Amino acid sequence: MANINRVILVGNLTRDPELRSTGSGLSVCTIRIAVNNRRKRGDTGEWVEEPNYFNVTTFGAQADNVARYLAKGRQVAVDGRLSWSEYEAKDGSGKRERVEVIADSVQFIGPREGGGGGGGGQASGGGDWGAPASAPEPAADIPDQWAGGGAAADDDIPF
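Request: output the structure for the sequence above.
Response:
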């Protein structure tokens, strides 16, 4: 069986994007997103939300678009893969490890700042902000039972 390394996250930026470039001029942008995990407490039966934080890295034109159009608090959907790395601590105290998400695409969700309206756009290349006019709005093709619009009846399940 083949290995699979795929991550899909929807969350909010916890800080503004940080854009830098490599020696060869390749743009690299890092963002940090918070994704809430909702669970029921066993002792009280009360629902609580616990945040999980993820570092996400984008490259090239996508990095430029993310840095240009996103800001702290903005909601995004990220599709990418996990990447593990090891590095030496700056203070010389030993090796450290980290896992980050390398984004293949970053979908902007919600309105632009000061723009009012407007669906999402995808930061996957150059050009203007936003999806092409012929592209469907985000989540337009998701059936109601998967988009939270109601539970699927057993007869609707395809297996």
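The first strand starts at residue 7 and ends at 13.
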